[in-house]
Amino acid sequence: MPHLIRIAREKQLRNWDIPALVAVIEVQRHSNNVPLPKEFLSEYEQEIKGIIDVIKLNQGKRWDQVYATSATAAIAAVNGQIDLARVIIELEDENLVNKFEKFMEHYDEFEEWLEENGE
């Protein structure tokens, strides 16, 4: 993946698919897969943070939902926030966003239910 990020940075690729790929690969890498050998881990973790430079190429532009989801998931993933990256990836589904908004409208009721049920 560091090679992909390096190419994206050099070619100034600004589309959503590079950050999305980085996010998905990192999430999957932490999901019951064989870990990277320890001797490569530090360099790998440093190299993948280069996706942030790729994302910065779109700093002055308006992001659509797909790019925003991809970029924020990638930033979370390369900073070790794998669960957060996984959730952000799932939010790309617009129906899920709408459901989440509805849920948040009634969050107080949900909190009360949790308290009543010892959660």
What does this structure look like?
The radius of gyration is 17 Å and the shape is flat. The model has no long low-confidence stretch (mean pLDDT 90). Helices cover 71% and strands 0% of the residues. With 119 residues, the chain is an all-alpha fold. The chain has one domain.
Write a brief caption for the model:
With 119 residues, the protein is mainly alpha-helical.
Low-confidence parts, pLDDT < 50 over ≥5 residues? none
Judged by helices, strands and strand pairing, the structural class is mainly alpha
Question: How many helices does DSSP assign?
Answer: 8
Number of strands: 0
Give the overall average pLDDT.
Answer: 90
Q: What are the secondary-structure elements, in order, as H or E? A: HHHHHHHH
Radius of gyration: 17 Å
User: What's the shape?
Assistant: flat
Distance between the termini: 41 Å
Beta fraction of the residues? under 5%
Q: How many separate domains?
A: 1
Largest sheet: none
Helix content: over 70%
